[in-house]
Structure formats: structure tokens, C-alpha cells
Amino acid sequence: MKRGSSIGAALALALTGVLFTSTAAQAGWSRVPGGLRLDGEVKAIDYGAFLHHFEDAMLTEPGYAPIAIWLAGSGGDESAAIRIAEILATAQDHGVRLATVMAQGHACDGACAILFLLGDEQIASASGTGLIPRQ
Predict the structure, then answer these.
(1) Parallel/antiparallel/unpaired status of strands 121-123 and 98-102
(2) Exposed, middle or buried: residue 69 (CB in 10 Å: 0-12, 13-18, 19+)?
(3) pLDDT tens figures, 86-112
(4) What are the CA-CA distances from residue 56 to residues 7, 75, 81 (Å)?
(5) Is residue 97 part of a domain?
(6) How far apart are CA 45 and CA 26, in angstroms?
(7) Which residue range is the domain that position 98 belongs to?
(8) pLDDT (tens digit, 9 = 90+) per residue, 4-19?
(9) Fewer CB within a 10 Å sphere, N or C end of the chain?
């Protein structure tokens, strides 16, 4: 089952003023089975790649399953993380469930923590990160 067109409309609004270049898909965000993955820090330059891969995940992943957001890095640009968090929160308001996953061996603080804490389901690696678990 495909996700609703209202989510696509919300993403289209977010794309206003964003120019996609051929390098956008090669940024820190990549599409993986079940969702998308960020390798490295959250960066403003990677925003276009995030939008591209998140929209693809919403259109192709089963509607009954959460979209996984794999975080394999730490920190970064907090204003970029807030911009991404606004898109994720809008999707959640339209029924999209998110599972944020911290890859084993990675810490998650600052900008990364902003994204991690948005997950409807949060999965942290067994290595320990110092994050406060969701109550």
C-alpha cells in the first residue's frame, strides 16, 4: 500500500527553493532497505539527498511498517537537524511511523540526538551511548 498524497504535498512544500544537483544523492544520506541511513554528521548540504531518499522510502516501503532512520555518526549542524526534524514530524502527523536506529559503535549527540529522539521506536546499539531512553 502506498502512502497518502498529502505527505507528498507536505514534502513538495518543503522542497520550495531547494535545487537538486547530481551530487545530492551521493551525500551522507543513502537509501537502504526499510528506510534511509546517515553516515557521518548532519550537514545542511545533505538536505536534498535526505528529501530524495525519504520521499522514496515513503512511496515504496509498506505502509504498515515504520520507516527506519539509521544514524551512523554523531553531531553536526543542529539547524540542519531541526530542518530535517520538521519534515519528519510533518510526516508523523500524517501517519508515518519512524524507527530511529543508532548503528552499533556510534554515539549520538547534538544534531544526531535531535533526529534520534523523533523516533516512534528508538533502537540504540548495545555499546552504550549515554542517551536517555524513551519513557
Answers:
(1) parallel
(2) buried
(3) 999 999 999 999 999 987 777 788 899
(4) 12, 25, 19
(5) yes
(6) 11
(7) 5-123
(8) 444 444 444 343 333 3
(9) C
